Amino acid sequence: MSLLPRPEVQSLIPSTHGGLNYAELEELGITPEEVLDFSANLNPFGPPPAVVESLSQADIAQYPDSEATRLRRALAEALGLSTSNILVGNGSTELIRLAALAYFSPGDRVLIITPTFSEYEIACRIAGASIVEQRLLPEKGFQLEVNETNELIQRHRPRGIFITNPNNPTGRYLSRADLEKILDSSRESLLILDEAYLTFVDNPWSSLDMVERGNLLVLRSMTKDYALAGLRLGYGVARENIIDALSRVRPPWNVNAVAQQAGIIALNEEEYVKQCQAKIKEAKEYLVAELSQLNLPPMSSEASFFLVKVDNSSEFRRRLLEQKMLVRDCTSFGLPGYVRIAPRTLPECQRLIEAVKRIRG
To answer: 170 CB contacts (<8 Å, ≥6 apart)?
Structure first.
């Protein structure tokens, strides 16, 4: 008889994510280089040139600094924090897993605001925790009902709470006042605030001064802002005791030397990011206007990406992929009939609109 894994692992269903599916492209006879990817919420202009130039400077013959000391110092200086409040991860997804490993046990309840990033639930299931769900509704514009959130917290006393801000896939952005209400109601919970897409919000507010007020772990991604998805790089900000707990379960050498080097250089490239933000905003405005003209009005979104309701999301995605355009079918988010679109460069967005016109006859 073969050896079976833990029941929690045996029952796991792998997550579906955006980005290219290389096996699918091979079946269609399409090379990855031919596809314009509107399915992943990344900076479409690529990494800052200075970052690309710096990659060869990383010493890959030696083990990387397990504490990412230089990068944490650079982050601390940029954010006005202490290095003891920062932990660097192999993408923010690793930090999600570390939080679950350090804080959640079998039988614990964790509140997840959905639809959202599926890795929260995966991390909780691995730890044996059960999920309490608060579902955002399309008929309410996917806005979070904070009073309902606080009622769920009082009723279930969750060990953890996951909130994405701005939300993925809806792009809705929670105000500081609303987050403060949730934080005040969740003093017995670890509130994990995932700000992976904060750079793509027009008027963001900073949550970092709130970490000392409660059990708040703020997660941020450097792969989205600086187009470093291939390197995997993110960081968490929290009180020192929370960072210490995550550090205890963090694998050694979890962030490779090339990613650390890229992160240090990227922090000096804020002007580049601002220029990209302006171009992305222009591209979003173009897409919203053109899709609305085609009777495909995007849902309200404070982020750069947005949802569009279509007749058949999987068919819509497939037909666009045949046109070498990729959008995100949101069925895996529990939103069949919706696709998520993230702007690329303006000329590429124009090509997407032409492809949409073709598939709609």
So the answer is: 115, 136, 142, 299, 301, 307
For the chain, first and last CA: distance in Å? 56
* pTM (whole model) above 0.70: yes
CATH code for position 72: 3.40.640.10
Beta bridge partners of 87: 236
pLDDT at 361 over 80: no
The number of domains in the chain is 2
Last residue of a domain, one of 245, 266, 287: 266
Condensed to tens digits (0 to 9), the pLDDT of residues 304-347 reads 999 999 999 999 999 999 999 999 999 999 999 999 999 999 99
172 within 8 A of 143, measured Cβ to Cβ: yes
Q: Rounded to the nearest 5°, which phi and psi values hold at 161?
A: -140, 130
Residue with tokens 């058949």: 312
Distance of CA 312 to the CA centre of its chain: 25
- Euclidean distance between CA atoms 281 and 267, whole angstroms: 22
* CATH assignment of the domain containing 312: 3.90.1150.10
Task: Please check whether residue 2 lies inside any domain of the structure.
Answer: no
Q: What is the pLDDT of residues 169-209, one digit of tens each?
A: 999 999 999 999 999 999 999 999 999 999 999 899 999 99
